[in-house]
Amino acid sequence: MTMKYKAIFLDWDDTIGDFSRSAKCALTTMFEIHQLYQYTDYDTFVQKYSEHNTLLWEQYGRDEVTKDELKIDRFLYPLMHACGLEENSETRVLARRMCEDFLRMTNHFFSIIPDADKMVKTLASRYPLTIVSNGFVESQYLKFRKSGLDPYFTHIVLSEEVGAQKPNPRIYEEALRINGITADEALMIGDSYTSDVEGARAAGIDQMWFRRVADGEEDPAYGKVVTLTEGQTATYIVNSYRQITDILADGMWVA
């Protein structure tokens, strides 16, 4: 079999690590610890948090907000708009405390998505693997070690260390540089259309969009039906790890 690609780039959160699950566990625990039920209900709080967190990560990817602003504001916003608290020094202290709790708890509740380890081991038997992630340095390296999968990755490229966040092509160019390959020799696999698909495409790299559920089905991680938006395309669109290995490793599946 002639392999089209000389290296595979992989996103981490919600592609290998089950960040959606750990975040949900952390938010549920924090809601009780900080007794936020006296101000609002859990679903309203999470809705406001999720909407603003998504916006902040998009802004972070465009260098419009700093890491510290993202970490604090994603909790300050729901405290104000779901809980009805005023923006003052006391509320900002609570938001910072919740940020610290969230990072600690998501690490505590960390797990990989079922069968992600099989996919990684299968691909690693055929290709050099590189993690390309926007996740925070202090959390990502801890999760890599806890996963037990770090020996299977040749390189780790984190946005904080590069100075550019996905979808900025610079982070992909750094991944290409350290692998000593050209854009047409790499493939990026990830769950985010904006960061992983559009970002890789902007760098001239083929993309594999990992959608954990099929079009029109409910995604348990987000509790809503997922549908393709018109114009959303990728080199490959897959819904399972087995599909990934069928395409890239000729059906080989390492137990």
Write up what this structure looks like.
The structure is a single chain. The chain is built from ten helices and eight strands. By secondary structure, it is of the alpha/beta class. The protein folds into two domains: 7-18 and 111-248, Rossmann fold (3-Layer(aba) Sandwich); 20-108, Putative phosphatase, domain 2 (DNA polymerase, domain 1, Orthogonal Bundle), CATH 1.10.150.240. Strand 4 (186-190), helix 9 and strand 5 (206-210) form a beta-alpha-beta unit.
**Whole-number count of domains:** 2
Largest sheet: 6 strands, parallel
Gyration radius from CA atoms, angstroms: 19 Å
Text of the CATH class of the largest domain? Alpha Beta
Could you tell me the mean pLDDT?
91
Question: Level of helix content?
Answer: 40-55%
Low-confidence stretches: none
CATH-defined architecture of the largest domain: 3-Layer(aba) Sandwich
Q: Could you tell me the CATH topology label of the largest domain.
A: Rossmann fold
Please state the structural category.
alpha/beta
What's the number of extended β-strand segments? Answer: 8
Q: What is the element string, with H for helices and E for strands? A: EHHHHHEHEHHEHEEEEH
Gist?
The chain has 2 domains: 7-18 and 111-248, HAD superfamily/HAD-like (Rossmann fold, 3-Layer(aba) Sandwich); 20-108, DNA polymerase, domain 1. It is 48% helix and 12% strand. It has 10 helices and 8 strands.
